[in-house]
C-alpha cells in the first residue's frame, strides 16, 4: 500500500510541478506584455533602434542652397560664354579685313585698317599714341566709339582712379543713382569742375566713367570718358556720349571684347 502510494506520488508530483511552472511562465508573460503596453502608451521606446540618436534633417534648406549655387554658376557661365562668343566673332571679322600691326609700349598690337584713325606706317611700327574707331554693339546697334591707345603708365584705368583719386575729389553732397550706377559730383577745382563720375558700386572690376555737364566746343568731342586696360602695358582712353550710360552693361561687354582683339597673337 505504501509502495503504491509512493509510486503514485512520484508520478503525480512532477506533473504538478510542471503545471505550476507553466502557470508561472504564463503569468510572467502576461505581466511582461502588460508592462510593454504601459511603456508604449507612455511614449517610452521599446526598441533599441529607437534609443539611437536621430540625425536632424533639413532637406528643404539643403535643396534651396544647392539651387542657389547652381543658378549662380549658370549665370557666371553665361557671362563668360557671351564674352567668348563676342571675342570669336570679332576675330573672325578682323580676319576678313586687312590687319595693320604696330607697337605701343613695347607691346605688339594689331587692328583692322578700317578701325585706324591715325596715320600708321607699316614700316615704322613703334608709336606712342594711336587713335582708333571701335565699332561697339549696343542693343543690336553698332556705334562708332573713338579711343586713343597709349602706354598704361600715362593713363591709369578708371577703376583704379576711382579708389585712388576720384574718391578724394567728390563733393560732400548726397550721391545720385540711375541705371544701376552711382553718380558723384566732383569738387569745383581746376580739372574737375562740372564733372560727374558714374560708377558701378558692386563689381570688383567696375565700370567707371567721368562725364562733363556739357559737350566740349568741338562737335566731334564726346562728353564722357573711361580708361580701360587693353593689356598690362597699354590703355585705351575711350570717349562716348552720355546717352550710352543707360546701356552701360552691354557697352562695357562689347567694348572689352573689341579691345581684347587688339592683342596680336
What is the structural class?
A: alpha+beta
Low-pLDDT segments: 1-12
Number of domains: 2
Count of beta strands? 11
Distance between the termini: 128 Å
**Strand content of the residues, in percent?**
15-25%
Commentary on this structure:
The strands form 2 sheets. Strands 4-5-11-10-9-8-7-6 form an 8-stranded antiparallel β-sheet, sandwiched between helices. Strands 2-1-3 form a 3-stranded mixed β-sheet, with no helix packed on it. The longest helix has 40 residues, at 2-41. Helix content is 38%, strand content 25%. The protein has 5 helices and 11 strands; from the N terminus they run H-H-H-E-E-E-E-E-H-E-E-E-E-E-E-H. The chain folds into 2 domains: 2-49; 63-260, no CATH class. By secondary structure, the protein is of the alpha+beta class. The radius of gyration is 42 Å and the shape is globular. Helix 3 (59-95) packs across helix 5. A hairpin with a 2-residue loop joins strand 1 and strand 2.
Describe the structure in brief.
The protein contains 5 helices and 11 strands.
Short descriptors:
globular; alpha+beta; 265 residues; 5 helices
What secondary-structure arrangement, pairings included, does this model have?
Elements: H1 2-41, H2 48-51, H3 59-95, E1 99-104, E2 107-112, E3 126-127, E4 129-138, E5 141-151, H4 158-164, E6 176-178, E7 181-185, E8 195-199, E9 208-212, E10 224-229, E11 234-240, H5 248-260
Parallel strand pairs: 1-3
Antiparallel strand pairs: 1-2, 4-5, 5-11, 6-7, 7-8, 8-9, 9-10, 10-11
Helix pairs in contact: 3-5
Amino acid at each position: 500500500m505504501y509502495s503504491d502510494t509512493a509510486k503514485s506520488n512520484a508520478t503525480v508530483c512532477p506533473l504538478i510541478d510542471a503545471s505550476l511552472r507553466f502557470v508561472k511562465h504564463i503569468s510572467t508573460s502576461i505581466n511582461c506584455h502588460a508592462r510593454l503596453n504601459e511603456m508604449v502608451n507612455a511614449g517610452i521606446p521599446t526598441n533599441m533602434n529607437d534609443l539611437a540618436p536621430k540625425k536632424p534633417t533639413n532637406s528643404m534648406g539643403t535643396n534651396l542652397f544647392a539651387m542657389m549655387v547652381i543658378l549662380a554658376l549658370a549665370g557666371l557661365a553665361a557671362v563668360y560664354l557671351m564674352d567668348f562668343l563676342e571675342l570669336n566673332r570679332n576675330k573672325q571679322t578682323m580676319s576678313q579685313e586687312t590687319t595693320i600691326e604696330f607697337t605701343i609700349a613695347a607691346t605688339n598690337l594689331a587692328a583692322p585698317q578700317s578701325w585706324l584713325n591715325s596715320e600708321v606706317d607699316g614700316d615704322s611700327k613703334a608709336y606712342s599714341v594711336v587713335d582708333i574707331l571701335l565699332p561697339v554693339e549696343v542693343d543690336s546697334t553698332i556705334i562708332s566709339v573713338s579711343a586713343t591707345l597709349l602706354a598704361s603708365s600715362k593713363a591709369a584705368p578708371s577703376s583704379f582712379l576711382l579708389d585712388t583719386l576720384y574718391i578724394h575729389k567728390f563733393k560732400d553732397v548726397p550721391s545720385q543713382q540711375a541705371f544701376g550706377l552711382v553718380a558723384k559730383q566732383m569738387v569745383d577745382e581746376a580739372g574737375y569742375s562740372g564733372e560727374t563720375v558714374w560708377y558701378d558700386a558692386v563689381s570688383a572690376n567696375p565700370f567707371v566713367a567721368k562725364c562733363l555737364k556739357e559737350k566740349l566746343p568741338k562737335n566731334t568731342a564726346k562728353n564722357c570718358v573711361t580708361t580701360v586696360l587693353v593689356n598690362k602695358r597699354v590703355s585705351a582712353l575711350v570717349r562716348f556720349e552720355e546717352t550710352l550710360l543707360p546701356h552701360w552693361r552691354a557697352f562695357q561687354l562689347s567694348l572689352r571684347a573689341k579691345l581684347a582683339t587688339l592683342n596680336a597673337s
